[in-house]
């Protein structure tokens, strides 16, 4: 009985945001004190299919940015984790990797902004990419650090002894072994970038209009319907990722 | 030196430049900017922005408000997560709980802020419901649940985002540490269920989760999206306070914004060092 009550309570608590956002997305003029919208319209959702739709462009921009950040951070993190494993003091490199997490993202953006301006990257996708990599790259490095243990080196050496070239040992032995961890790194760095608002908004001075930036703009314009549609679009990729692999969402780098 | 080693060193050098060099250079720039040496209107060394700190309580109030929000959010999230893990262990292992708790992890904080605003504001859904039920008779009669002076809306949003994650974390630690075996052992030795919870389970869970709790607290301390949507213009949380000062049109405000950024960054780094030492000293 108590168990059912708890499940219903939490289920309701977690389902309510999706219900309210869905209602807002199909309610063009939902005013106080109506508890339910007076009319329903799929207009905002249908307009997503139009070629010049700003929301659709934002979705594409966010997807592209998050995918590039995930791919670069995961590939770079894998190489960096390998390089760190071969240094005399890997612990120091790991400690340094935590520096970007010691500061709130917006404060980090404030600190690096003068250099982004000097590099003529302010207000551009390139500037946002550099900023996001500053957070995603150490994250992936710390996450993938655990792969480069003595065991991985031994597998690599065994493959070489059995006649593999370095490339074959990497592609046919190390990569398949590392794949579960690489997949987690890809998922999580994608989400880091996908969820970001403050960092992107500050570094791009509002010019790189990702989905999160658009949600904020629509909220500022009191356009609850479009803000709800953008919010629902923001929930789509994480929901897909949860469906594919929920463990990849939770795994975090160990904190020494 | 082999080419593999050389490329590894080059990679690490570039990494250090990005991850350590850039933030530290930013910190240095903020310090120089706060004394008028660099920046768009730099006119040479001056200590007036530092001296003005004594008269301006905005930064201090913002820091205190942020500490309150972070402390209250973390405390409530930890209490809720511990309550679930220690009070509903059997339920947590049954479906749909293991999946259900992942659902809030899908939600960006900005979307959570927007949702709570639509739910709890004076024109929000709960206010409409209470109006239709005759509990309130106007917009103003509904209590201020968001954009309130105590930051209640921000705290609620942070708790909703953090407690499912902390529940999953505590549950993983509970199982890894085989706390169920310890529970049986303590009961065999005559301890009550409450004694097991308070003297065995809670210390183990909190000590092992300390680094994640520390990161969670720092993240809340520097939160931006939620306070921007659910907070008031005064007092502001630290990230909003600094970003607002930096984005003002008056360029003469910039050194004060740099000073605030520098002090907050140094303060946070110091706080983290102290907390890391404390958690290591009390670790197993």
Keywords:
heterodimer, A: 256 residues, mainly alpha, MetI-like fold, 13 helices, 0% strand, globular, B: mainly alpha
Summary, kept brief:
Chain A is mainly alpha-helical and 256 residues long. Helix content of chain A is 74%, strand content 0%.
Judging from the principal axes of the Cα atoms, what is the shape of chain B?
Answer: globular
Rg of chain B, Cα atoms, Å: 24 Å
From the coordinates shown, what is the CATH architecture of chain A?
Orthogonal Bundle
Q: How many separate domains of chain A?
A: 1
Characterise this structure.
The complex is a heterodimer of chains A (256) and B (284). Chain A has helices at 2-25, 43-46, 54-85, 90-97, 99-102, 105-118, 125-144, 150-161, 166-195, 198-203, 211-220, 224-244, 247-250. Chain A is mostly helical. Chain A has one domain (53-250): MetI-like fold. In chain A, helix 1 (2-25) crosses helix 12 and helix 3 crosses helix 7 (125-144). The longest helix of chain A has 32 residues, at 54-85. The radius of gyration of chain A is 22 Å and the shape is globular. With 284 residues, chain B is mostly helical. Chain B is 71% helix and 0% strand. Chain B has helices spanning 3-34, 48-52, 58-87, 89-93, 97-100, 109-120, 125-132, 152-176, 179-188, 193-221, 225-230, 238-246, 254-281.
Topology overview:
The complex is a heterodimer of chains A (256) and B (284).
Chain A: H1 2-25, H2 43-46, H3 54-85, H4 90-97, H5 99-102, H6 105-118, H7 125-144, H8 150-161, H9 166-195, H10 198-203, H11 211-220, H12 224-244, H13 247-250
Helix pairs in contact in A: 1-12, 3-7, 3-9, 7-9, 8-9, 11-12
Chain B: H1 3-34, H2 48-52, H3 58-87, H4 89-93, H5 97-100, H6 109-120, H7 125-132, H8 152-176, H9 179-188, H10 193-221, H11 225-230, H12 238-246, H13 254-281
Helix pairs in contact in B: 1-13, 3-8, 3-10, 6-8, 8-10, 9-10, 10-13, 12-13
